[in-house]
Amino acid sequence: MANSIVWISGATQGLGAGLADLAAESGARVINFDRAPSNRHETIAFDLTDPNSWEDIANHFRDIFAIGSIEKATLLVVGHANIGQGLLSKVNLETYQRSLVANGVAPIMLGSLFLRNLPEDVAGGLMLMSSGSAARPVIGQSSYSACKCAIEGWVGVMKQEIAREGRGQWVVAVRPGFVDTPSNRELANEDPELYPRAAKMGSIIEKYAISNTLGAKRIWDALPPSDEARIISFDGRPQDGPEIIT
pTM here? Predict the structure, then answer.
């Protein structure tokens, strides 16, 4: 992967860290966008909840591509803000609003900045992390589910626009399945009065969740996606391979 660069939002921990480690092992330059620095990968400060930090990312993309030596570029939008989840009647509305910005608007803007600055002669593409919550209602996850639905809709439009312009780059959303991430552990410890699913999250994690390393490997193995893929889903029976949703 000479002259290859991989940007990952949220690579300090969890699934993002697993994806970053595998990319680095393949020889790519890895850059982490996160509030907290990684102890293994180059990090640029980025806060999903703060629109003022987004312009710095746009300038960063422009500066990197202006150098002209990049042959392959990939952005994996993985990070999310584990805030604003809970019953609408009980959740703090200010936090709820921040969740909508961080988990919906920010990932879409990050992807938009990448695609707007990605030169047509540079191979690669964009992955936005989605969730099974985009496909089924989960009590206490109204903001999160809405954001993931928006991401999947946006990806569908971008696929058509990229094809219309005749660019060879790809864009896809991924539903990673149930991964043992720090954010899922946090939800398992949430107040059941606010987030009713917390009561059984812990046992579900122990019984069904896969490691971040395995989750990252099967995502990388599915990239780049087939031309028709809008969503790659590891929900359901991942042992049978990912489901391709067009």
Answer: 0.93
